Amino acid sequence: MPAIPSIDFHCHSHFSDGALSPQELLQLAKAREVQQLAITDHDTVRAYSPQLLAAAATAGITLVNGCEISCQWQRRGIHVVGLNLDLAAPGFALAMTLQAQARNDRAQKIRDVLQRLGLDVALPQVQALAGDGVIGRPHFAQHLVSTNQMPSMAAAFKCVLGSGKPGDIKADWPTLETAVGWITDAGGIAVIAHPMKYKMTLTKLRALLEAFVAAGGQGLEVLTGYQDAQRIDALADLAHRYDLYASAGSDFHRPGQPWAELGRVAALPDRCVPVWTLWS
Ligand code: AMP
Ligand code: MN
Ligand code: MN
Ligand code: MN
Question: Is the pTM of this model over 0.85?
Answer without folding.
Answer: yes
